[in-house]
Amino acid sequence: MRILFLGDVVGNPGRRALRTFLPELLKEYRPDFTIANAENAAGGYGLTEKITEELLGLGLDLLTTGNHVWKREFLPYLAQAERVLRPANYPEGAPGRGAVVLEKEGRRLAVINLEGRIFMRPLLCPFRTAESLAQTLREETPCILVDFHAEATSEKIALGWYLDGQVSALLGTHTHVQTADERILPKGTAYLSDVGMCGLRDSVIGMHLEQALEMYLTQVPRKLEVPKKGAVKVEGVLLEIDEETGRATKIERFRREEC
Ligand SMILES: [Fe+2]
Ligand SMILES: [Fe+2]
Q1: How far apart are CA 203 and CA 152, in angstroms?
Q2: Least packed by Cβ within 10 Å: which of 27, 28, 117, 227?
Q3: Tell me: the pLDDT tens digits for 25-70?
Q4: Which ligand has the shortest distance to the CA of 196?
Q5: For 229-247, how does the pLDDT look when each residue is reduced to its tens digit (9 = 90+)?
Q6: CA 238–ligand 2 middle distance (angstroms)
């Protein structure tokens, strides 16, 4: 089974990057399932129903999210959405779902979305949540992908080791910076600390460069905007999973950018 996973889609340029590069990526990698983290797809913060439909219309099978998904007006949609996940380790009562089994042409892929706790909200334990969800999902398919939306590489690496052999892949999102530590762990779990982002290339993690600099120089908090114009890039990975065992056989990073 081949899976294409794209890093955080940031605002209008992120969506433009997908329109520009996704057709050729689909042609080249021929994935069975295509997934993107879309927590910043609407103006840099959160998602909307319209943008969800737009992204799914580009050929994505599922959108994962993270800490930015909780836009008030999106919650009623999120509560019943079948192809949008939010992190599974929020307390009971939070709308939406944290895991799903995708099915296409007889192939089944389970996806779990989790959020880290280092420099983030004090959520339920992502380690124990992942373990118990993976156990349940394995009854339906051995192919399980985890999007761990977290800040600290140490927490991501620790969860990778903890889940080695229990899931097919653990991919990190949230920092918007692609790391170069992809590998297959000894018991067959593909691992990457951060997949990167789809968005504006010359920016501060997808946001307005000058506004970010002003914020850092003055320490005055402000909402950063996402400029519409400028060269864009996409970053992601291709995974190959043995469908019988659920073990990963390949993890390959990629980046495409406009010149
Ligand atoms: Fe993000
Ligand atoms: Fe995030």
Answers
A1: 21
A2: 27
A3: 999 999 999 999 999 999 999 999 999 999 999 999 999 999 999 9
A4: 1
A5: 999 999 999 999 999 999 9
A6: 21
- How far does the centroid of ligand 1 lie from the alpha carbon of residue 173, in Å? 7
- Do the bridges between strand 248-257 and strand 197-200 make them parallel or antiparallel, or are there none, so unpaired? unpaired
Q: Is 204 exposed, middle or buried (0-12, 13-18, 19+ CB in 10 A)?
A: middle
Q: How far is the CA of 244 from the centre of ligand 2 (A)?
A: 33
Q: How many helices (H) and strands (E) does the chain have?
A: 6, 13
Which residues of the chain, if any, have pLDDT below 50?
none
pLDDT of residue 245: 98
Task: Specify the CATH number of the domain 2-200+228-257.
Answer: 3.60.21.10
Phi first, then psi, for residue 167 (nearest 5°) are -135, 165
d(CA 252, CA 236): 9
Residue 2 CA to residue 84 CA, distance in Å, equals 20
